[in-house]
Amino acid sequence: MLAGMKIASHADQLLQAIESRREEVAALTRELIRIPTINPPGDAYEACARFLGERLKKKGFSVEYIRAEGAPGDSDSYPRTNVVARYVGKGGQGNGECVHFNSHIDVVEAGSGWTFEPFGGEVKDGKVYGRGACDMKGGLASSVIACEALIDSGIPFNGTLEISGTVDEESGGFAGVGYLAEKGYFSKPRVHHVIIPEPLGVDRICLGHRGVYWAEVETKGRIAHGSMPFWATARSII
After folding, report:
1. 41: cis peptide before it, omega within 30°?
2. DSSP β-bridge partners for residue 65
3. What pLDDT digit, counting tens, does each position of 176-232 carry?
4. Catalytic residue among 46, 74, 106, 198
5. How far apart are the first and last CA of the chain?
6. CATH number of the domain at 2-237, please?
7. Distance separating alpha carbons of residues 166 and 150, to the nearest angstrom
8. What pLDDT, in 10s, does the model give residues 166-175?
């Protein structure tokens, strides 16, 4: 009973701490937007990874930069640099489970028709505007601020927090999540739970994630357009 009350009290304390940092979430989102990590070709990946790593290092995270050498798209001109930061809870020396927050740092090109500077990170009417504000630098900023709030609160926990910024999600993730997964970065005993804070459909939490399946289908027959299928029949008669 007392243990349950203590947990509830800590949860309320943490939620209040996070709620009080709304301006910090917006400020970090703006800073991330201003790093134009455009994919293709893979601009500013290194700069964005280092920016995140240096911030989290100040909070006591151990930081690792992982370049996906040999992966599709990786080159000296456009290195596919991922960042993984890890914080071990002081409550139990990391004996508990690890929760990993994964976000991708790349964005698609800005395109035309913008009424705001795409990489300006401007704020109007309580909203942050810019390429990647939703997909998904806003989610990345939220996970960083949430973890920082937990650490600053002094609430003891015996697990581990991880935050990653990965590349190339917009082009398949082969040099990002795919590369790290092959290296065991998301597997037990290192990681037990992964949260992807992409803020799409904010009123629901999804358990699981859509995957992708590639296939080639080969058929035999006569060519005809869908609007004129009779040509195939006509040719076969002729």
Report:
1. yes
2. 83
3. 999 999 999 999 999 999 999 987 777 777 887 666 778 898 888 777 776 777 676
4. 106
5. 86
6. 3.40.630.10
7. 23
8. 999 999 999 9
φ, ψ for residue 82, nearest 5 deg: -100, 155
Active site residue 106: yes
Determine the Cα angle at 73 with ends 165 and 192, to 5°. Answer: 35
* pTM of the predicted protein model: 0.84
Q: Cα 66 to the chain's mean position, in Å?
A: 15
CA gap 101, 99 in Å, rounded: 7
Q: Does residue 173 come out as left (phi exceeding 0), alpha (psi in the -120 to 50 range) or beta?
A: left
Q: What does the domain layout of the chain look like in residue ranges?
A: 2-237
Measured on CA atoms in the order 53, 202, 152, 185, is the torsion positive or negative? negative
Cα dist from 43 to 11, 152, 154, whole Å: 39, 33, 38
In the annotation, is 169 catalytic?
A: yes
Of 148, 162, 168, 169, the catalytic one is: 169
> Is 26:32 a contact under the CB 8 Å cutoff?
no
d(CA 26, CA 169): 23
